[in-house]
Automatic annotation (TrEMBL):
Domain Polysaccharide biosynthesis protein CapD-like: 278-561
InterPro entries for this protein: NAD(P)-bd_dom_sf (IPR036291), Polysac_CapD-like (IPR003869), Polysaccharide_Synthase-Rel (IPR051203)
Keyword Transmembrane attached: yes
Protein name: UDP-N-acetylglucosamine 4,6-dehydratase
Keyword Membrane: yes
Organism listed in the record: Oceanobacillus sojae
Length: 607
């Protein structure tokens, strides 16, 4: 229907409604059939014309009646009131008499018929038409302003596939009430029984301000059901208009970490990055590339992307050039191996960076167990090469990325990273450069993490392989890990090992179950298979050794470990002999030094 046709239809319908209201009003006040006379004709024409004039003035005919609200009803009340008052004035001027009862009754019927016609149309669209369609029964978690908006969207969105059935809310004041005709049927802890009772197929978590811990609690209740679970976009996305209230998103694994992310001190970071020369090693990796993205936000003068793999470096370079097209920022790529000491010296001398983020490393535990000499060459010798080159060229700040596996290590990878930490701390004691290390746990979505593996296994129909039912790990997201590294640079005075308060560790089995659920399957669809702990793995990880623990936070959710013994002589010995001994002997030597066993043995002999 065109706009003109729509207005014409409204004028015809409203004319019939107004005249009917006058006729029924006269019928109610008279025992006989109303007779047309000059008084009735003038009154009727006055009300009718006034109604249309005020309807045009207040744009009544432009309202979309699928979205009827109190505001529209108030406009109708104004139009009817002004129409009756105008008709009274006209009638008095021409007839010199008034029938108050007639105008009052006709006005009430006028209001009832006009308002009722709009309301009946909306009720018809929201109930009759909606119920006639085969829609998915949906439960809305959260009966606040956001939940109400979601319900309103679903009730009016006839072309959609979801049908709102009920609300869930923990507020006792809202329970047992109806909101927009939908009952508030219970709290979060009743979700499982409510889904079964109301035959719910879809759940929408409609509280955009939820913390991760709160979202995780609600999702765990939803996961007990077979209903698909989605959530509103994040609050900042709604506020900025990036996403609308009816664009629901799937709950993601990162939402279930059970804690809020660390926020950055933008001012202090800007002070040491903006307009400076920044070099990132391993810039093509999952962590290195994210560090590069976040560093670019602070507009350094030059951002040097160093990596061994040409494809990954090319990819991050093209991405940054596209995002910052037209910026004065200069992106420089260097294809180089950190095991090449001369090349590291050359690059540091050529660019004279102010800040270095050292993200290049071998991180895969089982692979390093089988190739311990590669862990020595890359993680230990490579780190020493980059650190010495940075020190000789007076780099201001050097931040190395470490791992929680460096604490009481049982693996070659963890031991090599612990020795790399010692190299960095030793360099800090003899250099003008501020050296620091950052430890964090497993990174969701990084290369080598369990998430890509689980997703691939789920896509293939299972089974999902978990090493042990009691295996637990600390987890964080790639952006969060990168923020921690960048923030550490602003906090570093030299020699520190920074760690993140990562909340409670997460069971790998729970992560697998959640990912299966988030992928739209049930545990009956995808089998979980236990494969046994792999060489070098522990059931749990730690972020600090007992003698490193320092209870005071240096920044919200960031701690710094106390200095510990550094065994540079033992590290130099490993570097000297690692090519001449077999893998088992090298593995044992790495673990001994990393766990201070050598020093304890020397102390015992001297006593």
């Amino acid at each position: 229907m065109t706009h003109r046709q729509r207005i014409s239809l409204f004028i015809i319908v409203d004319s019939c409604i107004v005249l009917s209201a006058i006729y029924f009003g006269m019928s109610l006040l008279s025992s006989s059939t109303p007779q047309l006379n000059i008084s009735m004709l003038i009154g009727s024409l006055a009300i009718l014309l006034s109604h249309h004039l005020f309807s045009i003035k207040y744009k009544l005919y432009k309202k979309h009646w699928e979205y009827t609200s109190i505001q529209e009803l108030l406009i109708i009340l104004k139009i009817v009131t002004y129409s009756i008052l105008t008709a009274i004035l006209v009638h008095y001027i021409f007839i010199q008499e008034l029938s108050w009862k007639l105008f009052v009754v006709a006005g009430l019927l006028h209001l009832f018929f006009i308002g009722g016609s709009r309301l009946v149309w909306r009720i018809y669209r929201d109930t009759i038409l909606n119920k006639s369609e085969n829609k998915i029964r949906t439960l809305i978690v959260g009966a606040g302003s956001a939940g109400t908006m979601v319900a309103r969207q679903l009730l009016k969105k006839n072309e959609g596939s979801l049908r709102a059935v009920a609300f869930i809310d923990d507020s006792p004041k809202k329970q047992h009430l109806d909101i927009l005709g939908l009952p508030v049927v219970g709290g979060v802890n009743q979700i499982e029984s409510i889904v079964e009772k109301y035959k719910i197929e879809h759940i929408i978590i409609s509280i955009p301000s939820l913390s991760r811990k709160e979202l995780n609690t609600i999702f765990q209740e939803c996961a007990k059901t077979k209903a698909k679970t989605q959530a509103l976009p994040h609050l900042e996305d709604l506020i900025t208009g990036k996403i609308s209230i009816n664009e629901f998103r799937d709950v993601q694994v990162k939402d279930l970490l059970g804690r809020d992310q660390v926020e950055m001190d933008m001012e202090s970071i800007s002070d040491y990055i903006s307009n400076k020369i920044v070099l990132v090693t391993g810039a093509g990796g999952s962590i290195g590339s994210e560090i590069s993205r976040q560093v670019a936000n602070f507009k350094p003068a030059q951002l040097i992307l160093l990596g061994h793999g040409e494809n990954s470096i090319y990819s991050i370079e093209m991405e940054l050039r596209d995002v910052y097209h037209g910026s004065e920022m200069e992106f420089i790529t260097e294809i180089a191996d950190i095991q090449d000491a001369k090349k590291m010296l050359y690059i540091m001398h050529k660019y004279k960076p102010d800040v270095v983020y050292h993200a290049a490393a071998h991180k895969h535990v089982p692979l390093m167990e089988r190739n311990p000499e590669e862990a020595v060459k890359n993680n230990i010798i490579g780190t020493r090469n980059v650190a010495e080159a940075a020190s000789k060229n007076n780099v201001g700040i050097f931040v190395m990325i470490s791992t929680d596996k460096a604490v009481n290590p049982t693996s070659v990878m963890g031991a090599s990273k612990r020795l790399a930490e010692m190299i960095v701390q030793a360099m800090d004691r003899q250099s003008n450069t501020k050296f620091a290390a950052v430890r964090f746990g497993n990174v969701l979505g990084s290369r080598g993490s369990v998430i890509p593996l689980f997703k691939k296994q789920i896509k293939n129909g299972g089974p999902v392989t978990v090493t042990h039912p009691e295996m637990v790990r600390y987890f964080m997201t790639i952006p969060e890990a990168s923020r921690l590294v960048i923030q550490a640079g602003a906090l570093a005075n030299g020699g520190e090992i920074f760690v993140l308060d990562m909340g409670d560790p997460i069971k790998i089995i729970d992560l697998a179950k959640n990912l299966i659920k988030l992928s739209g399957y049930s545990l009956d669809d995808i089998e979980i298979k236990y494969t046994g702990i792999r060489p070098g793995e522990k059931l749990y990880e730690e972020l600090l050794q007992e003698n490193e623990v320092h209870n005071n936070q240096v920044y919200p959710k960031i701690y710094v470990g106390k200095p510990t013994n550094i065994y540079i002589n033992e590290i130099d010995e490993i570097i000297t002999i690692f090519e001449d001994i077999d893998s088992d002997a090298l593995r044992e030597r790495l673990l001994n030094v990393a766990n201070n066993v050598v020093m304890k043995e020397l102390q015992a002999v001297s006593i």
